[in-house]
Write a structure and sequence with these properties.
Number of strands: 15
Strand content: 25-35%
Distance between the termini: 63 Å
Radius of gyration: 34 Å
Amino acid sequence: MVDTTMTTTSGDNGQQQVAPDDAAADDDVITMNQHNQVIAEYQKLLAAYQSQLTYKTTTTHFEIFVSKDNFKFNASHFVAFPGFRERLHGHSYRASVRLLGSNQIGRDGYVVDFGCVKSVAKEVCKKLNEYFLVPTLSEVLDITVIEDKDNDDRGKVVCGEVNTGNKYPGSVVVKCEDGSTFTFPRQDCLLLPIMHSTAEELAIYIFGQLVAGLDAEYLMKRGVTMMEVTVSEAIGQDATFCHAIPSGENPSFDVASFITNDPIPPMKCSTTTEAARIT
């Protein structure tokens, strides 16, 4: 703190004059010139920062967003992880795609032709439609695929007659951590390379399928740097995955690489779809 102690002296005319105390140190006094220099330096740094911020927020780039009525699929599933399993249920899923390009569009006027995106996305959704989604990388489900094409066993008659000429032989047996066992007809199941059939992981999976269908090399040649995929399992329940377009020849997309190995924090809330919570 600057010492403001003052002393008084008598002038030639006999009047008292006020003077700074000799004990006040000159180093403790900030002159107006120094103050102005500090303010000027601060304003210079602030102006430089604001110019960079303005540049980043106004940089030109193009993007396209595609969401059509046929980007949809109906599927059944349940989410299971250590200590938890949902009841078997289904959703009417919808998907949308956003492609982020550079500051220039192609000579044909496109980032990417809408028709190309629509064609690929529609086909990806069609392949997911009306199946039970089986997460083959699950850490809590025991999944067995039975291809019993030559099985002549008529089975146990519970109601009516069993059709021995099964056009779609085979089954998928899913045993859960809580002891539940599900047996599905093989033709009703879609085996996916995911750990959980959540909207988040479906978004990752669909991203990989879209990149394969649109061709990563082609996208990069058109200046597309990022793609964003959103999967909605209900109105107001969306999961979005955004990632750079993978480079390299025949790029693969591993869903499991985006899932942490960290322990799952205890869930404090229950859910309406919960079937079992193992303690």
